[in-house]
Design brief:
Layout: H1 7-10, H2 23-34, E1 41-45, H3 52-63, H4 79-85, E2 92-96, H5 103-113, E3 123-128, H6 135-146, E4 152-158, H7 166-169, E5 173-176, H8 182-195, E6 199-200, H9 202-212, H10 216-230, E7 233-234, H11 236-242, H12 248-260, H13 263-275, H14 280-296, H15 310-320, H16 325-342, H17 348-360, H18 371-377, E8 404-405, H19 428-432, H20 455-467, H21 474-482, E9 485-487, E10 492-497, H22 500-521, E11 527-532, H23 544-554, H24 557-565
Parallel strand pairs: 1-4, 1-5, 2-3, 3-4, 6-7, 10-11
Antiparallel strand pairs: 8-11, 9-10
Helix pairs in contact: 2-3, 5-6, 8-9, 9-10, 9-11, 12-13, 13-17, 14-16, 16-17, 20-21, 20-22
Length: 570
């Protein structure tokens, strides 16, 4: 019985051409060898399973090859190549920094560096997982790395470049290995399947590639696992069953209930998924990726970002046409927010269900509906010709910080009644930030009128309104009776009050007052502003001395009482 070799080792690249997904880096390395422009130190960094160590070995073998091919590849026939392939080369040394991370290991390495090669031009030292070296080992290695003998070349490999000290990075040529794309991974898996006489569906290989997340070694390991499970017939269904991957059919079903706003059906689908044993966080992250794929499929220019197989691409494009972009934006945001809160949540299922409910409610939000649907729902408010042009008030007419002008409000629809909006409290911060109702005009009638009126007419209507103010608003009634309106121009009148309290009362009532005055005077352009009369401001608080002096003027015997008993007035 022959010894079985896993695909990750059996199909490990042995030439630059066989390296998957790193075309630019392998071309650079081949050109450096052919033009004899070799550096003394290289750093290969990137995620796991993308070919760092494999490229380091191929590079080392090709450097010492005695008969390079025209394409820059090793010949695999000379003594140097044969000794490397048989793992007996004395010129290429590999060191695992994870198990040899002490100063003693680096000292032994520096002693070996001094010995020239017995065969070939260079001695190459490959140090894998170099970030595992201790600080003292790094410091001991610095001088040798900066000025090695002419026959020595160092190739460092790491998955965590950020852990290397800056002095090491500055001494190396750095090569960043990228994650292998899904398309390249599927192509290589098809090659391996053909060599191993395994029948594999393209969609199944696509799921394997997505699960590997850019690592070819992981993809080959999963491939071997599925091939053993299926007996050499890899199907899409067998892959999602073995890897416990959620079928995209569920995502399409969830999308359908979201578009229809069917909350109950959505919760039943979620329950079905959870009963199959899927983790909630995987569900929500997969749903976010699904919405992202729908978004990129809406436009031909972003279709290149879609990483699934061609057979399912058409279905995504078809479904994406039914989804408004705003809905997809909000859906991605909701799914991402749920993903962030999932670990901290005590009731994780409820969090998933609440997110699904909010997703189903997106179709009722105006911003999430397609433009054509929004046009059907919007009813015309009023003909453009009936909307009066409201002149703007010059800034010079407003006293800074204490005077505010009522601006026209949005006109109601003809079928709606005119409603009152009375805030329960007034905040000066709201006023200064243009958030108070005084900045919103009182409601207009559907038909605009501009009949002129006099100051006498204005005061008469003002007094009539004040007389009808309820008893529970006694302060407002007194303010209106004591403070009369002054007409500034054809539409603007001003109320001068004595203190900020009176001003807040009028501001909170301004919408109702303007509504009544516009109705009585038959002029829809009337506006008001409230100002505080600084010259006539009443004092709201008195000191004890001021109270005593006032009482002494009223009753002179108070002075006699003070003197008789030697009282102090402070």
């Amino acid at each position: 019985m022959d010894n079985y070799i896993v695909s990750a080792r059996k199909y490990r690249p042995t030439t630059f051409e066989s390296v998957v997904g790193q075309k630019s880096l392998t071309t650079t390395l081949k050109n450096a060898i052919q033009r004899n422009r070799l550096a003394h130190a290289y750093l290969f960094c990137g995620p796991r399973g993308v070919g760092k160590t494999s490229c380091a070995r191929i590079f080392a073998k090709t450097i010492n090859c005695m008969n390079l091919s025209d394409s820059g590849e090793a010949c695999n026939e000379c003594e140097s190549c044969i000794s490397f392939n048989e793992q007996r080369s004395l010129n290429i040394h590999e060191l695992d920094a994870a198990s040899n991370n002490s100063v003693d290991g680096i000292r032994l390495l520096t002693e070996q560096v001094r010995i020239p090669p017995q065969l070939g031009k260079y001695k190459i030292y490959i140090i894998d997982e170099v970030h595992m070296l201790s600080t003292s080992a790094f410091n001991a290695f610095l001088k040798t790395l900066e000025e090695p003998p002419s026959h020595a070349i160092f190739i460092l490999a790491t998955t965590e470049k950020q852990k290397l000290i800056a002095t090491i990075l500055s001494r190396c040529q750095i090569y960043d290995f990228a994650r292998i794309t899904t398309a390249d991974m599927v192509e290589h898996l098809q090659f391996v399947a053909s060599r191993e006489s395994v029948v594999a569906e393209p969609e199944a290989l696509n799921v394997i590639a997505l699960k590997a997340d850019g690592g070819m070694r992981d993809a080959l390991s999963i491939f071997d696992q599925i091939a053993s499970y299926t007996g050499g017939n890899i199907t899409y269904q067998s892959v999602i069953e073995n890897l416990n991957v959620l079928d995209y059919e569920y995502y399409f079903r969830i999308t359908d209930v979201i578009l229809k706003g069917e909350v109950r059906n959505g919760m039943l689908i979620l329950n079905e998924i959870l009963e199959k044993g899927f983790d909630g966080q995987n569900i929500i992250t997969g749903l976010a990726s699904h919405f992202r794929d729908l978004l990129v499929c809406k436009d031909e220019s972003t279709l290149v970002l879609f990483e699934m197989g061609a057979s399912i691409r058409d279905r995504y494009r078809l479904i994406s046409k039914q989804c408004a972009e705003q809905l997809l934006y909000q859906a991605i945001a909701l799914a991402n927010d749920c993903d962030l809160k999932y670990r901290e949540s005590r009731n994780k299922r409820l969090l998933l269900e609440l997110t699904l409910i909010r997703l189903c409610q997106l179709t009722t939000v105006d911003g999430a509906q397609p433009p054509e649907e929004k046009k059907k729902q919007i009813q015309p408010i009023v003909e453009a010709s009936t909307v009066p042009a409201t002149p703007r008030i010059a800034a010079s007419e407003i006293v800074p910080e204490i005077q505010q002008v009522a601006k026209p409000a949005t006109l109601p629809t003809p079928t709606q009644g005119i409603t009152n909006h009375r805030p329960q409290s007034t905040s000066i911060n709201l006023i200064l930030n243009d958030q108070h109702p005084v900045y919103q005009a009182a409601e207009h009638k559907a038909e605009s009128t501009e009949i002129p009126f006099s100051t006498e007419d204005l005061i008469r209507c003002w007094d009539e309104y004040a007389a009808n103010v309820p008893e529970q608003k006694g302060h407002l009634k007194n303010t209106m009776m004591n403070c009369k309106p002054v007409l500034k121009n054809n539409f603007l009148f001003e109320i001068a009050v004595h203190n900020p309290t009176q001003k807040d009362e009028l501001v909170s009532e301004s919408a109702d007052i303007l509504k009544e005055l516009r109705t009585q005077l038959k002029n829809s352009r009337i506006q008001l502003r409230v100002v505080i009369d600084e010259t006539n401001e009443k004092k709201l608080a008195y000191t004890a001395t001021e109270k005593y002096e006032y009482l002494a003027e009223v009753n002179r015997y108070l002075l006699t009482l003070k003197d008789e008993f030697d009282l102090i007035t402070n």
